[in-house]
Amino acid sequence: xxxxxxxxxxxxxxxxxxxxxxxxxxxxxxxxxxxxxxxxxxxxxxxxxxxxxxxxxxxxxxxxxxxxxxxxxxxxxxxxxxxxxxxxxxxxxxxxxxxxxxxxxxxxxxxxxxxxxxxxxxxxxxxxxxxxxxxxxxxxxxxxxxxxxxxxxxxxxxxxxxxxxxxxxxxxxxxxxxxxxxxxxxxxxxxxxxxxxxxxxxxxxxxxxxxxxxxxxxxxxxxxxxxxxxxxxxxxxxxxxxxxxxxxxxxxxxxxxxxxxxxxxxxxxxxxxxxxxxxxxxxxxxxxxxxxxxxxxxxxxxxxxxxxxxxxxxxxxxxxxxxxxxxxxxxxxxxxxxxxxxxxxxxxxxxxxxxxxxxxxxxxxxxxxxxxxxxxxxxxxxxxxxxxxxxxxxxxxxxxxxxxxxxxxxxxxxxxxxxxxxxxxxxxxxxxxxxxxxxxxxxxxx
Length: 446
Ligand code: SAH
What we know:
It is built from ten helices and 22 strands. It is of the alpha/beta class. A hairpin with a 2-residue loop joins β14 (about 255-260) and β15. α8 (about 355-365) packs parallel to α9.
């Protein structure tokens, strides 16, 4: 048995893991609140010290009992063991630690506590057989490939759980085992849901086998029991991968997308497109971004990493900007953006299916100038290629929306070395109860 040591948690690091110092080295673990004392066993990994909490010996006054029975094993949430108020404080502290070099970091703006559960409009469930041979669904345990059965999730919109019940029962009734990655047998592997504010739901059945003869019967059953389902898509994915969706799709019912209203604009959302998982907070951050940046009629704006064009269209609506271009690598999202813009009557917007860096480098070559660039990249942040092009073009205003304050800090270090000054840094709790935070940052060229 490994030896236990007594330590005290001194705070959370950039990944929202708990950290402590032991023998002059920094270790990380999960689940401890700042100030808590615990007995831990040390696990030495690749160059980084990790530890496992064996027993908490001094409990923080901010600790509460999690509302979810699988909280410890699932790993989807990281803040159900503390009050929402304290979660916001901890998120503010992490952002301050990473971003204070660039200016004043405001307090993290949260949701009303009552709304901070059941907000996720995108739900993903993986299927498996349990020991009794019944179909179960849930998420893989954080560090293994063991499925944690989840019948109700604290942060997902509840409609998904109801539909999953129907799917599980159908598979049991028809003796359809879920797809097994190891022996490549079985049918359904995952189910992906997109749920609009008005309840309209997209169901994407991800199948590991090429043939799924019961697909129409299952679709009928889902539609009969859940009239909120407006479209059902069959996606084929038999690869050994952590990606949920494969390339091939077959439409089983409806138009292949749902519409959701965000900032008063109706957006097309298909299974493969990115859409912010928390609509209420997305509305807040996009509206603030337009207002606080002061963009207006005279601006020529580029929305880089634009997804289905949510920020571009919100900016066009609220600022009245003359011209607006969106650039995005995922062709499905670009198709959604074009459709939504057409339906909403925007004729000053164009959406381009290209790498953001390549597009901006080519724009410089063509002597184009944008007065404002909005960037909302994936967790990895923007590319050097893209940032070098920004520094060369020198737009007067930059709006950086980031879902990872660590890569935001890296990119701000570069931008502030190129005569950009940070005017506004505001964290938003876009992902309550989980180890993620969204940050809006507004920069002006000096
Ligand atoms: N602004 C959108 C999407 C943000 S998510 C919204 O708020 O809804 C980031 C987006 O960047 C994704 O849609 C992803 O497909 C896209 N993306 C990733 N790498 C890219 C690249 N190199 N060039 C352009 N877009 C990229």
